[in-house]
Amino acid sequence: MLLLISPAKDLEKLKGNDIRFLSIDKEVSGEEIEQIKKIFPNAEINFPIENLEKEDERQQETSLPIPINNIYNGELKTKRELKILSGAYLLYPTLFQGIMYNFDTLRFEERYANQNYTNVFQRLPTGQSMGGEFYFGRTFWRSIKKDRIKQKLFWIPDSPYMSSIYPELRAFSGMYWIYQGELSRRKFKKNFLKKSWGDIRIEFDKNNSMFTIHLKSPTGFEKITAYPFTYNNIPLEKVQQTYVIKFLGYEKALSRRAELFRRNLNKGKKKYDANFKKMHDYAWKELQINMCNEEKLMSQNDWLEYYDNIVANEKKAIDNAPLSLAFLLRQLSLVGFNTRAGNNRTPTTGFRINTLNVDFIDATGSGKLAVANIIILDNRNKTFSQMTGTLGLAPNLIPISQYSSNLVFVQLRNGDFGLVTSNEIDRQPIQPLQTCQYKVKVFDKNLDTIGNLLKAAGLE
């Protein structure tokens, strides 16, 4: 904390520093505040005592205690969202994108109500079912007990497959159903018997001894009014007396299936959560390896908030970042550059790319530079290629095209960066048997930023 007798005058000594946040006493005059704003145009100025008094007034009005964590300490702070601490944020999508939490938590009845499910199985994105679909058994027409009216009969399948996924339907095993409705035989067959269904529920009207069969399809729900019957000679009245017992058996079996599903869901979720935590913790430890010390002190929630702030204004954040090959490549992609395809002509100019031996020379006259990495940009076609340098022990063999807005970034052995402009490339004649010497403007890794480098290259 700094004790300033004359804040405006004393702070002027810090002019030129990247101060983003100032916390000062309210006794500073309005004229002094204006002077301070001119010295630090990007700074946010806060008045802790004034804020505390206003908070005290608000708390007195509501008769609530003042939270201790609202007391300001007046220290200088830098806003994190405008500062990249390390390149770890670039690795986050690679490590975590494949382990996003996607356990299906929908309950039994929720799956029944959802059109994207057949039985309890979710449909694939292509619309294909993973199980649970069925067709009714074929219909046939016959007279019942010498009635002259032919009934519309259909079967609910009782195959081992149906018994395993709809065990409650065993309550009506061995029975066929007689449709009660206005549809003709042809329409009934078209609307119900030729369609695939994704779920089935049955309701019983005791007063009328009639059942309603609810059917689910990908497009919605439909229902059939019908009653079950048997082939033997038991009169309908006798069969109707069994409806209550059969329906109670159906409801009990359906409840058992729902309870078994609930248990399996909870058991599966616990196992999934444990495995997900292991994968997440492993990925977090891998990410921390690439973090700086300040990031390692953050909690996961704090770091993710920091990551979100960087992504929200990434280009500006990288402009303020120190020189780094990873940051440079990322910024090139953000300003519209793509990796160059493997051909020997630029896409629109038609100028042939020549492969030259090149030494990179410091423009200040300090001699040949030890180059570790080379990035060649075609500014006109918004493409770039990357290659490894020779570290100064031999000329660098690079593909270059004159008069087509090419320029070159180099990363030196010591971490500094350099720029070879298009004018420098165009001024030297192509001499395949000789080594070209390109003058390089060097940027200090400790003083310059990605924004400084791109601005000098005309790519801001």
> How does the helix and strand content classify structurally?
alpha+beta
Cα-based radius of gyration, to the nearest Å: 38 Å
> How many helical elements?
15
How large a portion of the residues is in β-strands, by DSSP E?
15-25%
Mean pLDDT: 82
Shape: elongated
Summarize the structure.
This protein is an alpha+beta fold.
Molecular structure report:
The chain has 460 residues and is an alpha+beta fold. Helix content is 34%, strand content 21%. It is built from 15 helices and 18 strands. The strands form 4 sheets. The protein has an 8-stranded mixed beta sheet with strand order 11-14-13-16-17-18-12-15. A 6-stranded antiparallel beta sheet has the order 5-6-7-10-9-8. Strands 1-2 form a two-stranded parallel ribbon. Strand 9 and strand 10 form a beta hairpin. Helix 4 runs antiparallel to helix 9. The chain is elongated and about 110 Å long. The two termini are 37 Å apart.
